[in-house]
C-alpha cells in the first residue's frame, strides 16, 4: 500500500515473523488450497502480479448514482440536510465524480455536514481532488484558543500531523502508538477527524493504536509537510528521489506511477489551488519551492514522452519505404490500410504506427516482398509485425 517494493522483499526472508507469514501466503507455500484476498491499489498490484499464481482481479467501480444518493440519505440523519448536500455535490462535477469512491464520499459528506452544522456558507468549488482534502482539513483543524499565542493552535496541529505522516511514509508505517503522537505534540483523543483509534489489550495492559482516517490523508499530510517546513530544501531531495524511483520503475515495468503525495504537491502547484492553499492555511509557498516543483513536473512530462505512443497520418505508397528506413526506433509496428478519403493521389494509404523510444538499432528496418516490416533485431528473433495492406 505504501509502495513497498514487493518483488524485492519477497525474494528474501524478513526478520519480522509476520512479514514472513504474509510472504509465504502470497507465494502459496502454506494453505496452498485456500484463497487469499488482497485489496490494494493498481500501483502495488503491478508489483504483486508476477508473484501470484492462479490470480483473479476485480476492479471495484464504486458507488453508482443511485448508491451515492442512498449513501447521503444514510449519512445525514436530517433529510433536508441530505438533500441540500447532494444538490451541492451534483452541482460540482469534481465532487460528484469523487463521490463514486466510498472513502472520498465519506470525506465529502463529513466536510459538508460540519459546515452545515456550523451554519457556514459552502462557497468552495473544488477543481481537483487536492481541493477536497484542503477543504476538509481546513474545516476540522482546531481554531486558535489564544490570540496572543505565538503560533496558532491550528498551525501546531497541522505541523504535528504533517511530521507524523512524513515519518510514517518514510518508515513504511501507518499504525502509530500514543508515544508517537506525543513525540509530534498531538493529542489523539481530540483529533478524531483525522485519526482513527484502535484499543488493544495485551496481557493486563491496554494500549491504543492510531491510524490516519484513510491512507490518502497520510499522503496528503506528507505532501504538505514540505510546505510547512521552515527549511523547504528537503523537497528537492524528495522530488529527485521520487523521480529516480519513477525512472527505475519505467525501465523495469514500464508502468511507473508517481506517489499520491507527489500528485498532491503538483496539484498545489497550480495557480488557483496554490492561492487557495495559502489562504486556507495562512502559509506562503516560497518561489524556490515552486521552482523545484516546476522542475519535477517537467521531468514527469519527459518520462511520459518516453512511453509507448501512437501516431496516425496519411502517406503515399512511395514514401512508406522512406518512412520505414528513416525510423531508427526499436519495437516499431506499422499497419497500413487503404484510405476511403479522396486524395490527389489515387493510392493514398493511412498509416498507424506505435513507437517506443528505446535504444536505436544499428541498422534500419527492412521490408520484405510480403510487406512485412521488421527491424534487423526482429528479423533475427522472429518478432516482426505484419503490415496489412
TrEMBL record:
Record's compositionally biased regions (Basic and acidic residues): 354-377
InterPro entries reported for this sequence: NACHT_NTPase, NLRP_HD2, NLRP_innate_immun_reg, NOD1/2_WH
Domain NACHT LRR and PYD positions: 214-301
Residues annotated as domain NOD1/2 winged helix: 157-212
Residues of the NACHT domain: 16-79
GO biological process: positive regulation of inflammatory response
Pfam families xrefs: NACHT, NLRC4_HD2, WHD_NOD2
PANTHER family, alphabetized: NACHT, LRR AND PYD DOMAINS-CONTAINING PROTEIN 10, NACHT, LRR AND PYD DOMAINS-CONTAINING PROTEIN 12
Protein name: NACHT, LRR and PYD domains-containing protein 10
Source organism per UniProt: Neovison vison
